[in-house]
């Protein structure tokens, strides 16, 4: 069986631009994205060829719903994470200066 074109998890590259300023959306922003992640899952092929059981196949939808819920809960924290991450280089520099002063 040739499975060279088989994809169960496809990552979609993010746009490096600020999406709010440019008006562009990423895969994470679309309502059709069942997980709210930067990838798409599709296990239809594996289920069709009976490589996974019906029980396994049914768990995909509950996984997707859980991931979507979690991603919606943490989305408001994104701006805080970005702001704090931007402070890291400055704080690391201050630590280095303090260590050298000692």
Account of the 3D structure:
This protein has 102 residues and is mainly α. The chain is built from four helices and two strands. It has a domain at 9-75. It has helices at residues 19-22, 44-48, 54-74, 78-101; strands at residues 9-11, 39-41. The model has no long low-confidence stretch (mean pLDDT 84).
* Sheet with the most strands, sense and barrel status: 2 strands, antiparallel
**What order do the SSEs take from the amino end to the carboxyl end, as H and E?**
EHEHHH
Q: What is the averaged pLDDT score?
A: 84
Shape assignment: elongated
Give the helix proportion (percent range): 40-55%
Q: What is the number of E strands? A: 2
Number of helices: 4
Write the layout of secondary structure elements.
Elements: E1 9-11, H1 19-22, E2 39-41, H2 44-48, H3 54-74, H4 78-101
Antiparallel strand pairs: 1-2
Question: What keywords describe this structure?
Answer:
102 residues; mainly alpha; 2 strands; 53% helix; 6% strand
